[in-house]
What we know:
Blueprint: H1 2-12, H2 15-18, H3 22-25, H4 30-34, H5 47-50, E1 61-70, E2 73-87, E3 90-100, E4 104-117, E5 120-133, E6 137-151, E7 156-163, E8 181-191, E9 194-203, E10 209-219, E11 222-229, E12 234-241, E13 246-255, E14 259-270
Antiparallel strand pairs: 1-2, 1-14, 2-3, 3-4, 4-5, 5-6, 6-7, 7-8, 8-9, 9-10, 10-11, 11-12, 12-13, 13-14
Amino acid sequence: MRTLLFILFFLGGTFQSLSQSALLSQTHGARSHGMGSVRLFLPDSWSYFNNIGTLARVDESGVAVGYDSRFGLKDLQTVSLASHWKNSWGSVGMGISRFGGNLFNQQSFGLGFSNQLGIVSFGAKLDWFLTQIEGFGTGNSLLFTIGGVAELSPEVFLSANFSNLNRAKISRESVERLPTIVQIGFSYIPINNLQLHLELEKGLETSASVRAGIEYRLQEWVSLRTGIKTNPGDLFFGIGLHPKQFDIDYAFGQNTALGSTHHLSLGFRWQE
């Protein structure tokens, strides 16, 4: 029944509603989801998607794969891959992601670069973005995104990310634009094993969303997480296991009206 409602929604919607891209607004990586979908200051391979400016603060090179299952609907699943290469002159990142099913799906592939100068790290990326809608065809776009982090003290960080800064359209022939999204965040790390994050996200044509999350590392190899977000209102819980150079993360989200979401990601890190 929910699958039928989902199909009817897309068949009855306008291009404007379809252009509110789920893939562009998504958080990537189960670690982020476990903290209420905060995304701006979590240095790891998923920084390519979440905030390219954070990528320079990752100490190692790495690769990660992720899977998101939403409300039991195959048409709302996401699969992603992210990788980055750390070197002396900065960090190079790459990301591939696909959201949706046969009726409606979005795919992205891109490359980015991030570097740190003093207390500030900054990054930029270009993504090729593909939108496919059954009965309407396929659209291709090139998206430009920038992000950064400022270290105000060893415990306090301010972050920002600007997605689709060039306001790309769904396709050259379309007048509808993909969403441009602005995110700002505050992070507080009072001790090494505790992180607190607060973020605000606002699209040019959508309402603001507030996100807050906590991560507590019980041991070097295990972390516990929880968080909330608004618009829509969701509650999240997560756990991370870090045996040696591996990362295994899982998150569970609950929306009162729609149901539950499940997020799993696996990562591997190495020193250059």
